[in-house]
C-alpha cells in the first residue's frame, strides 16, 4: 500500500497556489459539452475525479483537447441535445460529482447508459438523485431501487417537478437543474440552507432558461447554451489544508493566491476567524466566480461549535477543521453533519479513529463529534480509508505532532490534489 511519512512538529511559511476547483472543473466540462461551440478553460483540475468526467464525455462523442500538465482544456460542445450513446459502460472511479451530475444530464437523453464506480462510489447513496429523476420520467435501474451503482439510465422527454433540497446537496440540486433543461414545464428547486451555487452561475452565464430568487430556483426547457472562455479559480477545499495548518500553529504565516472565494464555499474562513486565527482576504475578481487571496497567521486557537446551518459552506473542510479543533484550547462540537458519513468514506468515523490514534481527545457522535483540545499530538500510523481528504488532513495533523505521522493509503490524494506533497514541502518548516 502507498504511504507517506510526515515528520512533525512543523509550521507553514510561504505562498501556495491551490489547484483548480474540483466542482468548477466538472461543471466546466459538462457545460462546455452541452454548449453550441468551443469552450476553453485554464487551470482545469487534472485530478482523477475530473478526468473521469472528461473521459465520460469523450465516450459520448464530445471532442476535448487536453495536454496533460497544461491545465488547459478545449471542449467542442455538441449542443444541449448532441450527446451520443457511449459504446460501453462508463466507469467513474471514486467520483460522486461525476455520477450524480451525469445522471441529471442522461435523464434527458433517449439512449441507455450504464454508470459504474469503484467500491467506495458503489456504496454511496444515489436515490437522493434517482428518485426525483424518476419522478421527472427517467427510467433508472440499479440495486435497492436504484440506490447504488452500477446504474442503468434511459431518459427522454421529462416533466418538470417541484423539489425541496432538504439535504442541501449541490450534487442533487445540480443533477435536477441539468434534467430541468430537458423537461416540459418548469422544475422548481427550493433550498433553505444554501449549498454551493456553481451550477447556477454557469446556467446564468450560458443563457439558460433559469431564474433564482433567494433559495427558489426555477429552470425551464433550454435549447441553447453559450460556450465559455474562463480561468477556473483555485480550490478553497484544497487550500483548506494550508489554511487550517497555518492557522493552528503559532508562528506560521501563509499566503494562498488565486483561490475561489465563492461565499457558498468560504465557511472555513468564518470558523478559523472565530477560533482566533489572523485571516485577511483580498478579492481580486467578482465574476463569474469571486477570486482572490487569503493571508493566514497562526495562533493557539480556541474551540468552537459548527452546526447544521453552516455545514454546506464547509462540508469538505470538516476533516481538516477537526484537526484544528483537536489542537484548540477548550471544547469544540461539530453537529448536524451526518452527510459526512456518506462521502468518499464515513468521514466522521475515519477522522475520529485516526485522530484518536495520534493522540487527540475526540468522541464520535451520530451527526458529528465532540473534541477536547490538546496541546500536541503524539504521532503514529493511520489509515486513509482510501479517502483523499482524510489522508491530507492527517498530514496536516503532523504539524502539531511530537513524532511522525505515517499516512497509509496515499494514492487517493490524486483524486483532488495530485501536487499536495510537493506543495506541502514547499511551505513546511521543521520546528
Ligand atoms: C460537490 C458537492 C458536495 C461536495 C462534493 C462536491 C459538488 O457534495 O461534498 O465534494 O461539486 O457539487 P454534496 O452536494 O452531495 O453535499
Describe this structure in words.
It is a single chain. The protein has about 425 residues and is α/β, with parallel strands linked by helices. The protein folds into 2 domains: about 5-20 and about 235-430, Enolpyruvate transferase domain (UDP-n-acetylglucosamine1-carboxyvinyl-transferase, Chain, Alpha-beta prism); about 20-220, Enolpyruvate transferase domain (UDP-n-acetylglucosamine1-carboxyvinyl-transferase, Chain, Alpha-beta prism). The chain is about 30% helix and about 25% strand. The protein is built from 13 helices and 26 strands. The protein has helices at about 20-35, 50-60, 95-105, 125-135, 145, 170-180, 200-205, 235-245, 265-275, 320-325, 345-355, 390-395, 420-425, and strands at about 5, 10-15, 40, 65, 75, 90, 110-115, 140, 150-155, 160, 160-165, 185, 185-190, 210-215, 215-220, 230, 255-260, 280-285, 290-295, 305, 330-335, 360-365, 370, 380-385, 405-410, 430. A hairpin with a 5-residue loop joins strand 18 (about 280-285) and strand 19 (about 290-295). Shikimate-3-phosphate binds near residues 23, 97, 170, 174 and 196. Shikimate-3-phosphate binds near residues 97 and 195.
Amino acid at each position: 500500500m502507498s504511504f507517506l511519512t510526515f515528520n512533525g512538529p512543523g509550521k507553514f511559511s510561504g505562498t501556495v497556489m491551490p489547484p483548480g476547483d474540483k466542482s468548477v472543473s466538472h461543471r466546466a466540462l459538462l457545460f462546455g459539452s452541452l454548449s453550441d461551440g468551443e469552450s476553453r478553460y485554464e487551470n482545469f483540475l487534472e485530478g482523477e475525479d475530473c478526468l473521469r468526467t472528461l473521459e465520460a464525455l469523450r465516450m459520448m462523442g464530445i471532442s476535448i483537447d487536453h495536454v496533460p500538465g497544461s491545465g488547459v482544456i478545449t471542449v467542442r460542445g455538441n449542443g444541449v441535445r448532441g450527446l451520443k450513446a457511449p459504446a460501453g459502460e462508463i466507469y467513474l472511479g471514486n467520483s460522486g460529482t461525476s455520477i450524480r451530475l451525469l445522471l441529471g444530464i442522461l435523464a434527458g437523453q433517449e439512449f441507455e447508459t450504464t454508470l459504474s464506480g469503484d467500491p467506495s462510489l458503489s456504496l454511496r447513496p444515489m436515490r437522493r438523485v434517482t428518485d426525483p429523476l424518476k419522478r421527472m420520467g427517467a427510467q433508472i435501474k440499479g440495486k435497492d431501487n436504484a440506490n447504488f451503482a452500477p446504474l442503468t439510465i434511459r431518459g427522454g422527454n421529462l416533466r418538470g417537478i417541484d423539489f425541496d433540497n432538504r439535504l442541501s446537496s449541490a450534487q442533487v440540486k445540480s443533477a435536477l437543474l441539468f434534467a430541468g433543461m430537458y423537461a416540459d414545464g418548469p422544475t422548481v428547486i427550493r433550498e433553505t440552507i444554501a449549498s454551493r451555487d456553481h451550477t447556477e452561475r454557469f446556467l446564468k452565464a450560458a443563457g439558460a432558461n433559469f431564474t433564482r430568487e433567494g433559495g427558489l430556483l426555477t429552470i425551464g426547457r433550454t435549447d441553447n447554451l453559450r460556450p465559455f472562455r474562463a480561468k477556473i479559480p483555485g480550490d478553497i477545499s484544497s487550500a483548506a489544508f494550508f489554511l487550517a495548518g497555518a492557522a493552528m500553529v503559532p508562528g506560521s504565516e501563509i499566503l494562498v493566491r488565486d483561490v475561489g472565494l465563492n461565499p457558498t464555499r468560504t465557511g472555513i474562513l468564518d470558523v478559523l476567524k472565530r477560533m482566533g486565527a489572523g485571516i485577511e482576504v483580498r478579492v481580486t475578481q467578482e465574476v463569474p466566480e469571486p477570486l482572490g487571496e487569503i493571508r493566514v497567521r497562526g495562533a493557539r486557537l480556541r474551540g468552537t461549535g459548527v452546526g447544521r446551518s453552516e455545514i454546506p459552506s464547509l462540508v469538505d473542510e470538516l476533516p481538516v477543521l477537526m484537526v484544528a479543533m483537536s489542537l484548540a484550547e477548550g471544547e469544540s462540537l461539530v453537529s448536524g453533519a451526518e452527510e459526512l458519513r456518506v462521502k468518499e468514506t464515513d468521514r466522521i468515523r475515519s477522522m475520529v479513529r485516526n485522530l484518536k490514534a495520534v493522540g487527540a481527545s475526540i468522541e464520535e457522535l451520530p451527526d458529528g463529534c465532540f473534541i477536547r483540545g490538546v496541546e500536541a499530538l503524539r504521532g503514529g500510523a493511520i489509515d486513509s480509508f482510501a479517502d483523499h481528504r482524510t489522508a491530507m488532513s492527517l498530514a496536516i495533523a503532523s504539524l502539531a505532532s511530537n513524532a511522525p505521522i505515517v499516512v497509509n493509503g496515499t494514492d487517493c490524494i490524486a483524486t483532488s490534489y495530485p501536487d499536495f506533497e510537493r506543495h506541502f514541502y514547499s511551505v513546511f518548516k521543521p520546528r
